[in-house]
Amino acid sequence: MSYDPDLVDAIADRFDLRPPNRDGLHAVVGYLNGDLDSTVPGVLSLATGVGKTYVMAGLVEYLRREGIRNVLVVTPSSVVQAKTVANFRPGQPKYISGSPVAPVVITPDDYDTWKDQSVAPGLPAEDGVSPIQLFILNIHQLIAPSRDEGTTRGTGADAVRRAFRTPRETNGELDEYLRGLDDLVIIADEHHLYSVTAQAFQEGINRLEPAAIIGLTASPSDDDHVIYRYSLRQAIEDRYVKRPVIAFRKGGYGDHEEEQQLRDALALLRIKQGYYNSYRLAHPEALAVDPALYVQCADVAHATQIAELLREPEYLGAPGAVLQVDNEHNDVITNATLDAMDRPGSPVRAVVSVNKLKEGWDARNIAVMVTLRAMGSEILTQQTLGRGLRLPFGKWTEVAHINQLDIIAHESFRTLLNKEEVLQSFGLEDASSHSSPAPAGLPRGQGSGLGSEPIADSDNVLRPGPVATPTPGSTVISNDSVAILEYDADDPVRDAPPPAPAVISVNEQFRGCTFLFPATTMERQASPFNLSHVTEPQLQNAARRVSNSTDTLMRAELIFRGRHLGVASTDDVQVDSIPIGLDEARQSLVQTLAAMRVVEATASNITQIRRRIVPYFLDNVAIGSWTTKRLASAARVLQEVIAAAAEEYTSRLQIETRIHAVELPICDDYPLALGDDVHPLLADGATAADFHRNAHYGPWGRGLFKAASFDAFDTEYKIATLANRSPSVQWWKRLYPGDRATIAYTAVNTYLPDFVIHDQAGWYWIVEGKSQRGRDDQIVQAKRDAAETVVRQLISEPEFSEQQWGYILAYEDDIARADSWDDLVTATDPVQTRTT
């Protein structure tokens, strides 16, 4: 067959193809014109939701115009098969118009009546070109039956396989007919399911000995011969599909996890319904569709349980609003209802499925997704997201909630963003921001349909257009406060391998140097605390603090950072927690208080909880009804009251300080977070405005490590500077939480000093820097007293014998006046102890 670029463009115009689909059609026709191996599929890798079925329709029309008479479309399931038939049969709601001569569609239902249409007279034609015979079969129908003998009727696997191989009086055997064709082109939909690892599927296709095989998929394998690629990342950036948004609770989901996730999903669905309604009022020509929920479950039993739950009055409250689709719910009525769910008048508001709908099915009105009991990064793969990526009104709108697909997830989803399978789903193994080119010399199309129209500027449109050319990794905030990553498309940095994290190492001259730090705890010589010490006024005050607010569902939109995925906050939504009864609230509070470590489980304390504290507290809580969030608030304030009473009780008892020697440093090097790096030391005369809190600075010549981070410029950073340039200092070490170098200043509170500085005279200095306010701060002074006590106590600690220790509390003015480390030591009047 020939390759006619003008004809390709004409067909693309008739089918109103989007630019990437037009380019894909150019690529596949150019491929068929070349010297191809008919046993090796040429694969079009097109993102889910972009419209690969339209490319298929355009290709079928081009083949017809070239005189090809026979095309076989292989589908992975009965659901996709039914959808594909509806796409090619005139009169169906989802028929793809564009061909002046509709194909003659043959399915297994037509085996008994089908005749060879390629030679039938009197068929309609355009320019003398007859209709194409379009066979649409399920891949399972091409596989040989386990036994040749048996029935050819019914829906059993062997029955449909035998039917494909059984002769009919009018037309013979379809299997034999297809194998005898010399112009058979096979289009393998969801091609990744028929890969070389699926041997039976491959044999079923290859035994037909087609002239060519074209694969369509959103998930090609490394072994595929890809002739055109348009990734999900590109589709999102070009605004042909929805933007995925992760919706989560900050604290995650605890008890009643699935029930709460479903309630959150329905709350989001109600919010989106309002936006859909408003959009249709402003655009009367828009299709009257309503947003729907998609729930993916673990198995059929799980799906049945969830479907029944969603039909209850507290959820959707109507049997017809919930459609269950799986291997046991796969009848004609179910599939017809599924096919019509994104058309006006559909009662379906939730689809509950297992894996049946993961391939080749989507609905434009899926607006919220919940993947219950999903394995790891499955929730962020294209196979799952693809069910809801299509734009509900066929094009990008000015409304963010309409343009977004919300996925209910755990807060821990952030750990999944750089999983290999997730990055592959978005096409991030290739950092290119452009689709694979059409064959050399081919024009890129300018189709206007299916959302390819340019969108007029609007204050509410999510746009990636920058006000200035940003650098790779920079972030631009759009008008609706969603961060959209921008970069220069020609920047070679994007094609570089991802950077390794920076590593902070010990200075070589100090390698192997260790020391013991006197970490402490405080213990009280106490008699057990009794709940009789909790007073009624304390309980009344706690009851008034119980929060009556709703929950917040946080939302984070996925964005692209070079070869990685990131998130940017978008509008949060208010949702309700699970309602609970008063008795459940009472019992939960009893269990919570009884489990507190400060409460000894004596009969007296348990009686106090059951008969006095919880009943009196509940009588004074002024809320109308209980939810899990209000219960959590009640538990928190009640625990605080009891903890405060216990602390007050124990504060009157004698305290004993115990020293535990901790060896430092705990390692010779440690990595920074990916993307972080070491800042150069600040120049003389720098101010706090030049300082970045918690950033690592270096190199330090006398630092135990080459770089260190600091919380404050006027205290910690300046102390490090003084120590680093002082010849009387041998080395200094910044202390971090992981070092466990803490000093207790009450029986329950500890703090972490800023430094240990070791001078040439052999002194180890525990150093703390504070602002001027610390001079009058009781807690700061309590910390100072505790540290000075520890220094004094070291004289009797065997592990610190033959050592010299001191403690310095340096305020901002002390540090500012000091010209050297020795000045600072003198000005702060430190406590010192020699253990020799």
Description of the molecule:
- This protein is α/β, with parallel strands linked by helices.
- 29% of the residues lie in helices and 20% in strands.
- Helix 2 (19-33) packs across helix 3 (52-65).
Descriptive terms for the model:
836 residues, alpha/beta, 33 strands, 8-stranded mixed β-sheet, single chain
Question: What is the secondary structure topology, with strand pairs?
Answer:
Layout: H1 5-14, H2 19-33, E1 42-46, H3 52-65, E2 70-75, H4 78-88, E3 104-106, E4 133-138, H5 157-164, H6 174-179, E5 184-189, H7 199-206, E6 212-217, E7 225-230, H8 232-237, E8 243-248, H9 257-282, E9 292-296, H10 300-310, E10 322-325, H11 332-339, E11 350-353, E12 366-371, H12 382-385, H13 400-403, E13 404-408, H14 420-425, E14 475-477, E15 483-485, E16 503-505, E17 515-524, H15 536-544, E18 551-561, E19 564-575, E20 579-580, H16 582-594, H17 603-619, E21 626-627, H18 628-651, E22 655-664, E23 669-671, E24 679-680, E25 696-698, E26 708-709, H19 713-724, E27 729-734, E28 743-744, E29 750-751, E30 755-759, E31 763-770, H20 778-793, E32 804-811, H21 812-817, H22 821-827, E33 831-834
Parallel strand pairs: 1-6, 1-7, 2-4, 2-5, 3-4, 5-6, 8-13, 9-11, 9-12, 10-11, 12-13, 24-25, 31-32
Antiparallel strand pairs: 8-18, 14-15, 16-23, 17-22, 18-19, 20-21, 25-26, 27-30, 28-29, 30-31, 32-33
